[in-house]
Amino acid sequence: EAEVAQSPRYKITEKSQAVAFWCDPISGHATLYWYRQILGQGPELLVQFQDESVVDDSQLPKDRFSAERLKGVDSTLKIQPAELGDSAMYLCASSLEQGATYEQYFGPGTRLTVT
Amino acid sequence: GDSVTQMEGPVTLSEEAFLTINCTYTATGYPSLFWYVQYPGEGLQLLLKATKADDKGSNKGFEATYRKETTSFHLEKGSVQVSDSAVYFCALSEAAGNKLTFGGGTRVLVKP
Questions:
Q1: Over chain A (115 residues), what is each successive 10-residue block's mean pLDDT?
Q2: Residues of A with CB under 8 A from a CB of B
Q3: By the number of CB atoms within 10 A of the CB, which of A29, A51, B30, B91 ranks highest?
């Protein structure tokens, strides 16, 4: 069964350092999402791509976060500089297309700890 | 904006007990409603969904009914197993962008 791949699974970094996460969606999925899940809370959308275009990045802290999906396939989320409050699980999801009828499939996540 | 509120956990049950997790929502339009489950060390998995009022979603013995009049989507299972121990998230999605808005999650622990 096809899965969403994410790496690394765990990352420990010091504050003020740069960190990057990678996501490979299910083949053929046009829509890709990055969510952030703070411990004990539900995930919140950071950015949504349709192919290589950003559809929604209204909750992305653009002073320190950036995301790209250059060829409309895999995606990278970067934080520079990292802050203590960025410690969280970063989840990637993909769906065939936009629209509530299309199921989102989630990857295993990258757990970030900022010290 | 859209929001989802679900009962706080943890919920601790004995095997074969009845499980209910309450979920209510606020939305501007007519959203689709979902229950996701997160097992320890794994990503979120879709458990069930309902796309319009009075629809009932069901899967693996779990079910939930979309109640527009009470803006609710409560999750139920008649007889839980130890393997049902997980965190359960209620979520909604407005039709256009498919962005999911999640509740805070409810941890369920089933003891043998």
A1: 92 97 96 94 94 94 95 95 97 86 89 97
A2: 4, 31, 33, 35, 40-45, 48, 55-56, 91, 93, 95, 98-104, 106-109
A3: B91
